[in-house]
Structure formats: structure tokens, C-alpha cells
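Dear colleague,

As promised, here are the two records you asked about, laid out in our usual form so they can be pasted straight into your sheet.

NAME FIELD: protein one
SEQUENCE, THEN STRUCTURE:
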Amino acid sequence: MTKVGFIGLGEQGKPMAINLAKAADLDLMVYDLRAEPVEELVALGARRAGSLREVAAHSDVIEVIVVDDAQVEAVVLGDDGVVDGARPGSIVVIHSTIRPATVRKVAAACASRGIGVIDAPVSGGARGAQTRSMCYMVGGDKELVDRCRPIFETSGKNIFHLGALGAGMTAKLAHQVIICLNVLAAGEGMMLAQKAGLDLAMMQEVIRAGGASSRVADNWVKYQPTASAAKLWRKDLMLALECAEELGLDLHGASAAQQLIEKVLVRE
């Protein structure tokens, strides 16, 4: 039985962990600073970890889905963190959307202890996890990726191994540029329609039938991004722009979206 550790039971992480808890062939231990989601997972059969070190010591595979680079580094490399508890031969999976350079930094530190690292950011959000339709964008050694596939398949069958370490994160940043520009366009178009007095549900039907059709726009009425989502998108766009600068690219649309996305989507 594969022993899995899961760190980060937020909006996206909790439903992913719930899927793991329901898998008959996995022994799951979870960790989060908040007691409520931990209790929910324990009620489903997961083990409760008292520390990051403990969840790492338990696990063959340690999945991490926290907010940003600083949190990933603190969780994995900090005092009494994952690297201090994980066994040689175990694998750390980074699901958080962070800099490819941070993935490589974490991997180098883990390699000195015999611990493998792969980056596997995800798309689909909480609903994608709940419907087990998430998309995994994965970078790293093929053997490590193959060992993790059955774990990833508990939340989605769309698992793309895109290349070396950091490739998954680069793909996620490119994906976020497309998503955010789409969200910004849908938000402004729907704002115009609503201000003019048009019915948004009917407007959705127009979009589905016309050239503006997209997954975002087609479902805008129930989609309606939150302030927290807009804040995370702004962070992801910042990372994408940093990546583009390193490659000598100017992403003018992404730059505009990074400045405007919260202003357009978050309205008092």
C-alpha cells in the first residue's frame, strides 16, 4: 500500500485529498494549519499529522499545494520541514504554482538527502477535483512521474509529462496567461452587456452560439471569479511575466491583465 502525505487542505487541495482518502490502496496522512479540514479528512479515514516532519516520515509520496514560492520553501526546506523527515527514495510533488527556478532549488536541496522532486501543477480548481477531471502538467524524471501517476489519477486522467524538472510549472504559467486574458475579456464583455440591461443568461447563449465561445465565457453566470481567485491570478501573471523576461519575451497582453484583472473582476 502506497503511503501518501498531503500538505495544504485549501479550496483546491481539500477535494484532492478527499479523493485520496477514498482510494482503497492508499494510506493517507494530511497536514494543514487549520483544524477543520484536517478533521474532515480524518473522518474519511486519513491519518492526522502533528507536524510537517511527521507527514514526511510517513510517506512514500508527499504532495504539497500551498499558496506561493515562500510557502513551498518553508514547508519543504524550513526547520522541521519535509526535507528533515522524508526518507531517501521518497518523492516530493509540488502542485503549487510557483517559479520553475524555485522548483529546481527545492529539488537540489532534496537530492542531497536522496529525495526526488517533481513539479505537477494542476488546472480545474475545486470543481475539477470534485469531478475527478483535473489536468496535471508534470515535469521531472519519468520514473518518478510514473510512480505518481496512480495517485494523480484519483483526481484526473489528464496527466501530461512535459519534460524535465520545471517543465510542468512553465506549462502552468503559459496556461494561466491564456486563462487570465480569457477571464478578463469575458468579464469586460459581460459587464458591458449587464450595464446595458441585457440578461446575462441569454447573453451566455449568444456567446455559446457565436465566435466568442470559450469555457470561461460559456459558463460566466455560474463562474463569477472571486476576489481571492483574482488575487491568485495576479500572482500567477507576475510569475509568467518573470519567466517571459528570462526568455527575452514581451507579453503585452499578460502585462495589461496583471495590472487590470483585480480592478475588472473585483467590484464593490
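NAME FIELD: protein two
SEQUENCE, THEN STRUCTURE:
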Amino acid sequence: MVRGLYTAASGALVAEAQADTIANNLANVNTAGFKRTLLQIQSAPEMGIYRMQTDPSSLPGGATAATPAVQFVGGLGSGAQVLDTPAVFEQGALSHTGNTLDLALQGNGFFTLQTPQGIRYTRDGQFTRDAQGFLVTMDGNRVLGRNGAVQLTAGTVQFGQDGTIRQNGGLVDQLRIVSFANQSAIRPEGDNRFADTGTATPTLDTATTVNQGFLEGSNASVVRSMVDLITAQRWFEANQKVIQTQDTANGYAIQNVARSTGQ
């Protein structure tokens, strides 16, 4: 019976993690370039159940009561556990802002950033200029071009669909837009940024188009997130009920089984 408590508790913990994941998606439905995350679940490791046979009449040939035979009965599940929380890289809808430093990507590419933690990637193209004229994200990380950090002078800037940057009729640089051979190897790390875990293999992307004056919206849906959140809540409540039932059964066994055996 105690095993049932642990199994139900593992299900409740997974449901809680599911609710946290969905709540994060829901909180970012208005975040430019945000990519929703999923919760992948797997069965917890199974335990093997064996039966010790000591009745000589039921033992295989050669076995005796002194050397009982061990018979495999089957596997016993021990609940569920979180496997992974990957991002979903579906394209978000583009919205027109008219701001010259707002850029939206269409395709599989990512902007490349220089951050204090190293090279990072984002789909959030809401950029501005810092005091030195560098093109930066809203939290101050520099946007990289193919020749390094992009530095602009005063005046209007034009971004081509291939990422080329022009000012006063001259070519400044070209945005360093990359895609990944193994997209599942880039992981969200907060602040709408992604980090390469080491096996993503970034390469320059020439198929993704840059749209100046637009922002890509979040690919998280309010309606879908609310439905999923309700489902996770019901799942948690079901496991909670199982825990209560198991606890009641354990209490009954402690109070009555030993007493009835002693009579």
C-alpha cells in the first residue's frame, strides 16, 4: 500500500511541473519571439517482482525446499517522471510596429547575441541603440553581425530581407543569422534567449528572411494554455485523491488487521 502512495505522489509532482510549464507559456503570450515549451513525461523505472517457490511439488526439476526456485512474476511500475522540457519552434505571427529597429524573422533562423555568459541566440527582434551606437537587445546584449557587434551611426538604417544593414547608402554589415542542424540541442535559459548545449551545430542561415518594422509574436496560445492548465489541475487533483485513499487504507490496516489477526 505504501508503494501506491509513492506512485500517486510521483504523478502529482509531474502534474505540478506541467502546471508550472503551462503557466510560464501563458505568462509569455505577449512576449516577442517567445517559443512555448512542452513537458515530456516518461514512466519511472520498473521494479522486477519475483516469487520464491518453496513447495517441492511445484518446484522445477532439481530444485528442493532447501534451495527454493526463483520465478519472475513481472514488472511493477513506480509512477511517472519528467523526461524533458523542449521548446516548440513554430513560427509566430508577425505584427507591424513601424519601428526601424524592430526586426522579425521568418524561417528557422535566430539572431546571434554577445552576452556576459557568451554567445546566445534569440528570436526576439525588439532592438535599440546603446550610448555607443551598438545595436542591442532591450536588456543591453549586443547583436552580432558577420563582422562582429553591429555599430550604427546617427540617421536612418535599412535592413534588407537577407539581413544586410545599410546607412547613408553604404553597407554597414550583415546580421549574423544562424540555424541549427540539431535544433533540439538549443535550450531556453531565460530572458528569451537560447544557449547551445554543444551539439546544436550553428551555421549561417541564408533562407530566413528579415522583416524590418515588424515583430514576431509568441507562439503560445492563451486558449490552448488555459485548457492545458485545467487538465493539469484535474490530473493533480486525481493523484491527490489517490493519495488520500491510500492513506485511509493504510490507517485501516494499521488499526484493524493486526487486531483481527490476534483474535
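A couple of things worth noting about protein two: Residues 2-44+79-86+221-262 form one domain. The chain has two domains: 2-44+79-86+221-262, 94-216.

Best,
R.
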